[in-house]
Amino acid sequence: MVEFKGVTKKYANGTIALRDINLTVNEGGFVFVVGPSGSGKSTLIKLMLREEVASEGTTFVDGNDLLAMEKDEIPYFRRKLGVVFQDFRLLPKKTVYENVAFALEITESLPKEVRRKVPMALGLVGLSRKANSYPNQLSGGEQQRVSLARAIVNDPVLLLADEPTGNLDPETSWEIIKLLESINLKGTTVIVATHDNSVVDRMQKRVIEIGSGRIIRDQQKGFYNNDSSNS
Amino acid sequence: MTLRTAKYMIKEGVINLHKNKLMSIASISIVTASLLVFGIFLMISLNISSNMRMFGEQPEIVVFCQAELNEEQAEAIETEIKSNDVISSVIMVTKAEYFESVKEMFAENEGLISDLDESFLPVKFNLMLKDFDQCEDVTNALEEIDGVWDVQYPRKVVDFVQSITYWLRFISILLIIVLMVIAIFIMENTIKLTMNARKEEIDIMKYIGATDWFIRWPFIVEGIIIGFISAVIAFLLVAYGYSTIEHRFNEDIIHIGVEFVRLTKIDDISFLLVLLFLMMGTLVGSLGSYLSIRKYLEA
């Protein structure tokens, strides 16, 4: 699903965010990308989203060569992905239902399909009863669930989550992570960048640790810290 | 684009317009103001050129037939002249009539022409044109007709009228372009003022896979509506203002006794005015929107 080889990302200001990253994530995988702030986690997610382009190396996502991708192909590529952010990024003037439906409307889906898929996605995240609420009437956890519903309503092959629990309390964070897991069980590949050690430790999924732009650990059934396995 | 998407774009455009009322009002004022300036200039230029045309219609083209042709033969030439669409009227002056006028000219020196009769004079035609700009072409065409000896027209007057009309058009077009560029620039910046608030919305749309045109269209619809409303307001103001002036002016000028200067009636030009305003308004609006969003889509 994701295949990065020898990837280096250097920003225009000279900062090197990632160095020689080699990374393969198979279809149906669930991966945590961990590391302190500024380690390069977000840059890695941005490369997968084709928001940034690698300075060196090759980057493939779902068979697409991101370096060779034309600007007008990007929207169509992104429709195959779902994306969730720390700050939810919901449209404040649209209701919960409209926010989710929006992801389908921009792909010019049939109204029939919108009416079928939106309630399904909202049902999956447990927000069917809040369909007509506005984002500011919801708690942080609920807002993140709306953003999750929006990310999955298109049946993405890959779901990218950048600090999805960053603004949430531990209990809500766990709910969101469990939701990501259930989405993963339906076949979607999930990559979560996080520095929330408690959820990583509880889930025991594959962990890729990034430090100073390099992969310093890639471990199946890993913990947030390498030594946590002993505790 | 499907009909459903088009409907969505229009709906979004209208909603945006409503949501950003202050910006919309500012943009409408600016576009209306530029259209007003344009409208005032247009009215002045239209009136100058229409009065020029009235003035320009006064000189006649005179076609002289060869002297040996008699009236019947001249009639064949008349038919040919009349077949030219640009000519609005043809008056034939027979040899006898021409001779009468020559006699009048020589009324004080009758002895000079006392030996002559009408036969030495050619039949001539006095012509009026619908469009004096085509004077040269018409003259050339007339000279080609068999049996025509000479064609005369007051070249200096025609040249003067033509050069004034030319410069007037040139300045109008230049002014229109300058005004439009300024209006587009102001409109672009006015829309940009609210763009920061919408930047997040645009980002979200990009993340979930909206194409650039999908993001752009509602903004362009918004610009078109702004342009349309501005055009209607500007038209009403110009039409009302102008018809008041025109009414007074034309009445006063009759009192003074000047007959050849006239302001064009608003009814005669309102269609042209509406059409130009709508075209310019929507063009300025949509282009302004397009430019203001361009930067946000490049990133």
User: How are the strands of the biggest sheet of chain B laid out side by side?
Assistant: 2-3-1-4
Element string of chain A (H = helix, E = strand) = EEEHEEHEHHHEHEHEE
The run of helices and strands of chain B is: HHEHEHEHEHHH
Alpha carbon gap, first and last residue of chain A: 33 Å
How many β-strand stretches of chain A?
10
Largest sheet of chain A: 6 strands, mixed
Oligomer: heterodimer
Trace the largest sheet of chain A across and list its strands.
Answer: 6-7-8-3-9-10
Please report which band the strand proportion of chain B falls in: under 5%, 5-15%, 15-25%, 25-35%, 35-45% or over 45%: 5-15%
**Which pair of chains has the greatest number of interface residues, and how are they split between the two chains?**
A-B, 22 and 18 residues
State the separation between the terminal residues of chain B, measured CA to CA: 24 Å
Helix content of chain B: over 70%
Mean pLDDT of chain A: 91
Structural class of chain B, please? alpha+beta
Tell me the β content of chain A: 25-35%
Spatial shape of chain A: globular
Count of individual helical segments of chain A: 7
Biggest sheet architecture of chain B: 4 strands, antiparallel
